[in-house]
Amino acid sequence: MSESMQSMALTVPQSGSIEAYMQSAYSIPVLSAEREHELATRLYSQDDLQAAQELIMSHLRFVIHIAKSYSGYGLPQADLIQEGNVGLMKAVKRFNPEVGVRLVSFAVHWIKAEIHEYVLKNWRIVKVATTKAQRKLFFNLRKNKKRLGWFSNEEVNTVAETLGVSTKDVMEMESRMSSQDQAFELSSDDDDNASASGSFSPAQYLEDKQSDLAVSVEESNWEQHANQKLSSALITLDERSQDIVRTRWLEDNKATLQELADKYQVSAERIRQLEKNALNKLKGAMSL
């Protein structure tokens, strides 16, 4: 990858402008299967960097989608996205269009692997091994990790009692330490050797037939966009109409026509008319 392309893909703002970056990434159209295959073929057979750039830019939204699922670790969103972008670039570099899967199915494992590594390095020890007992647990497990598999319930209870920590701490620590092994997701070779030797792990071409990340991201984006348009459209209504729409359609405990009629001292038929007019106005505002 050229330095200019790396800069374009990896420059994620560290301040409040992260929202602008996300908006920009989401504005880039998703490639059709035909266009993606054309670009990937140009990159794979001709080392076309312009094709690589288009592939990367059109998939930045997927990195954001994946990075958001790691927000619970308290790490900067921009850093998570940036690490995911590294994984995306590695995936684009290695993607073989003749295998028969979409790039996003291939790239998701590389993206997650880079984010996993970042999280493990920057969160696990600081966030978990904060007490003396937890640090003792961490280093005891690490020392014996090569001979330990998954703990049985009896082993979990024994370790917890011996080290003076909760069983939850033991299982959480063992799970995080075990997740450091990325062999299923990453090639054992380094970046350049893996590409040259053609040595790839099975997960890199594992396609989930039950799930399409591209579809799920698009559906999520559409729902978010629709909610934003609905909120903007609602504020164009008068206060009474807003209340009628919210209580009749948007709240869990929906009000009846008669309840609203009693509230506003009008007939139920009048509430129905106001509701109909408000919904027509919303429909018109959201179609713009």
TrEMBL record:
GO CC: one term?
Answer: cytoplasm
Report the InterPro entries cross-referenced here. RNA_pol_sigma-70_dom, RNA_pol_sigma70, RNA_pol_sigma70_r2, RNA_pol_sigma70_r4, RNA_pol_sigma_r2, RNA_pol_sigma_r3/r4-like, RNA_pol_sigma_RpoH_proteobac, Sigma-70_Factor
Question: What are the residue boundaries of the RNA polymerase sigma-70 domain, all occurrences included?
Answer: 79-92, 256-282
* Single GO MF descriptor: DNA binding
> DNA-binding region at which residues?
257-276
Is Cytoplasm tagged as a keyword? yes
Residue ranges for the region (Disordered) are: 181-201
Protein's cellular compartments: Cytoplasm
Q: Where is this motif: Interaction with polymerase core subunit RpoC?
A: 79-82
Work out whether the entry's keyword set contains Transcription regulation: yes
Q: What is its main location?
A: cytoplasm
Which superkingdom is the protein from? Bacteria
Its BP terms in the Gene Ontology are: DNA-templated transcription initiation; response to heat
Keywords noted in UniProt? Cytoplasm, DNA-binding, Sigma factor, Stress response, Transcription, Transcription regulation
Q: Specify where the region named Sigma-70 factor domain-2 lies, as residue ranges.
A: 55-124
Q: What does this protein do?
A: Sigma factors are initiation factors that promote the attachment of RNA polymerase to specific initiation sites and are then released. This sigma factor is involved in regulation of expression of heat shock genes.
Q: How does it assemble?
A: Interacts with the RNA polymerase core enzyme.
Q: Which PANTHER family match?
A: RNA POLYMERASE SIGMA FACTOR RPOH, SIGMA FACTOR RPOH HEAT SHOCK RELATED
The record, for HAMAP family, names:
Sigma70_RpoH
Q: Which family does it belong to?
A: Belongs to the sigma-70 factor family. RpoH subfamily.
Q: Indicate what this protein is called per its UniProt record.
A: RNA polymerase sigma factor RpoH
